[in-house]
Amino acid sequence: RLVCEKIVAAFENPFNLNHYQHYTSPSIGVALFDYDAPSLAEELLRRADMAMYKAKEAGRNGYQFFDTLMETELLQRVALEADLHIAIEAQQFQLHFQPQYNQQHEIVGAEALIRWQHPERGLIMPSQFITMAESSGQIVQIGHWVLQKACQVLLQWSARPQLRSLVLSVNVSPKQYLQPDFVQEVKRMVTETGIHPGRLKLELTESMLVDNVEDIIAKMTALREVGVCFSLDDFGTGYSSLSYLKRLPFDQLKIDQSFVRDMLNGHDHQSIVNAIISLGQSLQLEVLAEGVETDAQLRLLTELGCQAFQGYYFTRPLAIELFEQWVEHNTGKAAKARALEQML
Ligand code: C2E
Ligand code: CA
Ligand code: CA
Questions:
Q1: Between the N and C ends of the chain, which has fewer C-beta atoms within 10 Å?
Q2: Given pLDDT bands bounded at 50, 70 and 90, which one contains residue 43?
Q3: How far is the CA of 312 from the centre of ligand 2 (A)?
Q4: Co-location of 335 and 232 in the same domain
Q5: CA separation (Å) from 325 to 313, 318, 321?
Q6: CA 334 to CA 107: how far, in whole Å?
Q7: What is the pTM of this model?
Q8: Residues near ligand 1 with C-beta < 6 Å?
Q9: Do 188 and 322 fall within a single domain?
Q10: 59: domain range?
């Protein structure tokens, strides 16, 4: 460990290479030679390599020692990746829905969140397969399924009075959005289902706004022309500048849940939340806070002027039938409360 730390520390300073100053952040993988392990040099290198990737994943500038768990994890990942290929055709994906509330605590929309019902492993959360699908390119197909499904759901809701005015937010991955036919595809799905385009909201993450800005703007503009809305997800975690934001025609900013979580623990986070809300107001964007878990967070966010909320405080994401029941139950409750208020 001492040796690793020395190497990492040595790279903290720039170094000269061919008259240029270079900076680098090393990731070190270590495999120890021992009598139980196969002594082949190849095997040792393979293990060190695996440990190095782990070190990279952990955020670079560090080191990791190989352990057998890494190998199990890797094998599981490879198996999962293979299973992902059949998941779409075998219709193993589902959408769950997490309600979004306004300041009056009425449900105004929902976020569609994907889950994978694996035949052997049970329900798999997106954190375990979305990154993988992004690097293998399968996200394009998966994202297409999600959009198609979301449009079908909106169509079903359009016939139900308590559900017809809900706006459904759909997560769109960078790779999917950058497909040359993305705009046509969305337009086609909207036209074919005949849904109200304003009920569909696409969530783009702040981190994807770094490259291809002109393409992003052109696509957003084309889709907004037909009425589709846009939300900027995980806001506050990326580096979007103000001048950028002004050019991107978003309808909504979503405050990243990390700020909401720590808002009551430190002044810094509260100032960030406050700044995001003011920014939203000055750019005339709705601000939604996600990851709202407590009454105290909800109160403070409301006080600061946040307009919409989503989080475990209200409910976790729900399977479609449960979500529909949830909305119907809540609309009933709200109507009763209003009637009571009028009587008093
Ligand atoms: P996200 O877009 O930031 O979604 C919010 C995540 O926060 C969801 O996790 C949701 O279940 C969780 N969450 C909601 N309320 C709370 C709360 O009060 N506290 C905490 N701690 N968490 C809360 P989930 O469903 O596991 O999704 C994780 C991520 O996977 C999403 O993050 C999104 O980036 C990605 N994802 C989900 N569905 C899709 C999809 O259809 N397409 C793409 N490309 N990505 C998706
Ligand atoms: Ca999202
Ligand atoms: Ca988010």
A1: C
A2: confident
A3: 14
A4: yes
A5: 18, 10, 6
A6: 10
A7: 0.86
A8: 98, 113-114, 125-127, 130, 143, 146, 171, 173, 233-234, 257, 290-293, 311-312, 317
A9: yes
A10: 2-66
